[in-house]
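Request: Show me your protein:
***
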Amino acid sequence: MANLRRIFLSDRTALSAADQLMKKAGIRRDPHLDYLCGIYEDSEALIAVGGCYGNTLRCFAIDPEHQGEGLLPPLLTHLIDLQQERGNTGLFLYTKPDAARYFCDLGFYEIARAGDTLVFMENQPDGFSRCLRRLQDETDQAMRQWAGPPVPSRPSAAIVMNANPFTCGHKYLIEQAAARESVLHLFLVSEDVSLFPFAVRRRLVQEGISHLPHVILHDSGPYIISQATFPSYFQKDDEAVSRGHALLDITIFRHIAAALGISRRYAGEEPFSAVTNLYNQVMRKELPKAGVQCTILPRLCRGQTPVSASAVRQILKDRGPSDELSGLVPESTLRWLRSPEAAPVLQRIAAQQDVRHH
């Protein structure tokens, strides 16, 4: 009789068996899994596996000789129960295109496909549509509050940024885009896995752009550069994996652009981060297919050196909020960095071995 049990990530023998099973299924084990389980035969042979990272389910594989034996439902039920114990109700799932229909039968709904290699799904039938309605409502509310002549709702443009922390480079990019567009949607990555907490990043962005008209600040939610859509942004992965994640994130963004009438997306040149530079490459190729132009603007430089959040974090790690930051961050950011409120963040940065974005 088959039995389901946890596979501890420290168990090399069990992990080797899981890796072999995933290889048979044409996938490989995600290095960021925080939980893995498997179904074993009486002979102790591993015949099915599934895992998760955060609130995403991934790495499902069933031995080809045991296909059709109903092994997927107990795996999925076990992982959903685990997620409920963690307090996660909104769940996301990666799978191969040929397996998507099985997960549809088990209560998951397709959001997007990244080429012919990856399908992204969630367990809430209206999760993504609710996100789109929120963004539309925020846009309508902002436009009603703007003084002066009516602002056309279309076309508009967008920027997505993490702002960890908000620098003069971020401010320059927003100013350049806002000067060219009647409406600019600014999506701030809201997942709280950066050295600067989301609440702090949002506050610093709001203060830094308070002089700019017709910029609408949105929380990105789980559908734009999150651990669900683009984990490579937060976790180091090889180029092929990062490219697949970038394609998925941009595929989802195309739906957001259509809902908000976004016809152009701006980004800054990326001389430091390989993964962000790769993302820009994929964006320039994929967005025009959906009628969204992609404009990559030159970085703001201090002397010959481009301004970057990574460089700011390195200075904070090495020397704290020194005068060296003048010209790298807006006055509002520097003021916050020198306030008592910043102490826990500065301590966290000082304790990090590497504060630069990969």
In short: The radius of gyration is 22 Å. The first helix runs from residue 12 to 24. The CA atoms of residues 121 and 219 lie 21 Å apart.
